[in-house]
Amino acid sequence: MTKWTIKDIAKKAGVSITTVSRVLNRKEEGMSEETRQKVLRVMEELDYQPNRLARGLVTKQSKLIGLIVPTISNPFFPELCRGAEDEANAHGYSLVICNSDASAEKEEHYITILKEQQVDGLILSSRSGLSSTSLLPFLKNVHYVHLDRMEEEAVSGVRLDNEAGGYLAGKHLLELGHTKIGCISGPNEIRNSRDRVAGFTRALAEANLEPVWIQEGDFSLDSAYQHAMAKLEETDVTAIFTCNDMMACGVYRAAHGRGMAIPKELSVIGFDDVPLVSALIPKLTTIRQDTYAMGRKAAALLVQQIEEGTTDFAIFEPTLVVRESTAYVPTGGND
Amino acid sequence: MTKWTIKDIAKKAGVSITTVSRVLNRKEEGMSEETRQKVLRVMEELDYQPNRLARGLVTKQSKLIGLIVPTISNPFFPELCRGAEDEANAHGYSLVICNSDASAEKEEHYITILKEQQVDGLILSSRSGLSSTSLLPFLKNVHYVHLDRMEEEAVSGVRLDNEAGGYLAGKHLLELGHTKIGCISGPNEIRNSRDRVAGFTRALAEANLEPVWIQEGDFSLDSAYQHAMAKLEETDVTAIFTCNDMMACGVYRAAHGRGMAIPKELSVIGFDDVPLVSALIPKLTTIRQDTYAMGRKAAALLVQQIEEGTTDFAIFEPTLVVRESTAYVPTGGND
DNA sequence: TTGTACGCGTTATCAT
DNA sequence: ATGATAACGCGTACAA
User: Domain named HTH lacI-type: which ranges (chains A, B) (predicted)?
Assistant: First the structure.
């Protein structure tokens, strides 16, 4: 029928609401097992559920955590959300997920909404424009951690060592004997992308090499396809590093268009290790970031900040996952 | 500093809390523009944000909608969530997303939590075990709609006409001249899967044909790969229909393993049209369901149910998306 | 046009 | 060991 309140339970059990509240909050100190059981029975019988709004009003915690991502449709984010959710849930929090489409207005809008909802904290995996600084006014009076996307070092949050990832990719190609290597980066205004390219060129520099070319993509399959189609004709590289997996797909398509076999005639290495890459033929060699773990860690840091007031920062190390899209530099190549 | 309340605004503006509450709720009827502006100025100045917990306690609505999906990592769900979120947000609701991993316990757990959070309604895109009936006790006193996954017809919700989708797939292959067709289904206990196969066989039956074989997969790439590898050797089909896109990827891999070219020697048609399929080479022909629209519709129905008490059901029609993985039956085949 | 006072469901303080 | 009762921040009859 209607929703029962603590008051109903109290009346039906013949006790005061204080007593009911006590058994609810497991303050078992001093309380006859008899009344305890009596109250529990009535709660069971009426299928009573406490009202968190009322509770939150007095305890000042909603047990809600807000998560803002650019868009969950980007295959990079689902795992990250899962991680955050699992960890949050383990601590008794629920996750309110918001997609900002990387729009500053939407971000600000959602932060406002979430604060009104009295979320206990925020996980920001989006970024307002080029700098998160502009969000600062909106982030007053609320705990938050950054996750993955951030321009400058944040006080609290988690990110990947993107530079190390780029280095891993470069090193891997080098070890396979490649010397003529191309690179399709992400947008230069995104720090993650810049770092990946930096690591990549550092690896080549250590071998006294430099990329034959670096094209600026936008993380989309199509941008990479266009660049690869053009460059594959103009130049003769034996390997391409793309700053995410989606763009590696674009290179696959371009190679197919140019009649080049992967990895026999062209090695391809991506970045992220999103689930879809295992569906590619050949399976994609890539730089893996453990997004699930990063999501969990972000939530853990946030909960810690909420409950203990401590802030911390974590940097994850990427790993090289060798699959089928990279091979030793083709022998008999026109070196 | 601290969070301001309606009381602070009232005091600072020299009016009563009632007045503040009035301007807050835009009850502009009868109120001097002067005091109105005064209050607004103070709210602006203090960067006041109403507390939805307190508000919800009296209005009895949290402006929260719960969404339960099996797992957002399954590429089928992100778009669906986006749709639901966009629509919910347009109506002033925020979305609490929960992943049940298709576990009945988790579902029940989340429904309980969400009800405690006083969500105004639930979107259920998961299913408890084989029947949603078992969830009924948990769904007392709460508005909800079903989305996509449901065993029997629900009172309110949206789903795809899966039978029609299967029919479309069968018809398409028939029109390309195929007569020897295999099918890899999803788990038989899932209604969506059964319906797809039913539509598919109905199409063949209309041409006095029947599938050369039907193998029961589990929606995973690997299950389809195993089945296809085996059947591609035993039998000589010229086309395969898989009940989702992921399994089509498995068939791609098997065809590759058996040295068969798609679509030249083998046509493949999938189901769902998840984003990843555009990354495949060749691009996958598939039966598309507009998950974004379905998500929006589900949220719309729910909001309608919450705000107007009306319940409704919507059935979406799938469409055939012809890409590159299906072709006319190979000529000179060993008929 | 504006203000007073009560209630929403719960926790917390202080009695008993 | 248990119970009144005052908050929590807001909306809303009802009064002025």
Answer: 5-59
Residues A268 and A246: their CA atoms lie apart, in Å, by 12
Among residues B78, B101, B127, the alpha carbon closest in space to that of B276 is found at B78
Q: For strand C, which nucleotides have at least one atom less than 7 Å from a protein CB?
A: 1-5, 7-13
Higher pLDDT, B59 or A152: B59
Q: Which residues pair with A288 in a beta bridge?
A: A272, A319
Residue A129 has pLDDT above 50, yes or no: no
Would you put residue B34 in left (φ > 0), alpha (ψ -120 to 50) or beta?
Answer: alpha
State mean pLDDT over B229-237.
96
Cβ A270 vs Cβ A285: under 8 Å = yes
Q: Angle at CA B28, nearest 5°, toward B24 and B30?
A: 130
Q: Residue A277 — pLDDT band, cuts 50, 70, 90?
A: confident
Report how far residue A2's alpha carbon sits from residue A79's, in angstroms, rounded to the nearest whole number: 38
Instruction: Please give the single-letter amino acid code of residue A68.
Output: I
User: Are the CB atoms for B117 and B68 separated by under 8 Å?
Assistant: no
φ, ψ of residue B8 to 5 degrees: the values are -60, -45
**How many beta carbons lie within 10 A of that of residue B12, not counting itself?**
18
Please name each of the domains of chain B with its CATH number: 6-59 (1.10.260.40), 64-160+291-317 (3.40.50.2300), 162-289 (3.40.50.2300)
In angstroms, the CA B143 to CA B229 distance is 46
At residue B59, does pLDDT exceed 60? Answer: yes
User: What is the mean pLDDT of the segment spanning B24-39?
Assistant: 82
A120 pLDDT higher than 70: yes
Indicate yes or no: strand D within 7 A of the C-beta of A19.
yes
Q: What pLDDT is attached to residue B335?
A: 41
| DSSP secondary structure, A13-80, as one string | HTS-HHHHHHHHTT--SS--HHHHHHHHHHHHHHT----HHHHHHHH----EEEEEES-TTSTTHHHH
- Cα separation, A139 vs A111, in Å, equals 8
For the segment A130-161, what is each residue's pLDDT rounded down to a tens digit? 455 678 889 989 999 999 887 666 789 999 99
Whole-number Å distance between alpha carbons of B217 and A302: 41
Which pLDDT score is estimated for B333?
45
Instruction: Say if residue B107's pLDDT is above 90.
Output: yes
Give Cα B288 to chain centroid, integer Å: 13
* B7: number of Cβ within 10 Å: 11
Minimal CA–CA distance to A302: which of A67, A112, A53, A59? A67
- For residue A132, the model assigns a pLDDT of 56
> Residue A75: its chain B contacts at CB < 8 A?
75, 78, 275-276
φ, ψ of residue B86 to 5 degrees: the values are -60, -45
Say what the pLDDT of residue B142 is. Answer: 94
pLDDT at B129: 46
Q: Does the nearest atom of strand D lie within 7 Å of A36's Cβ?
A: yes
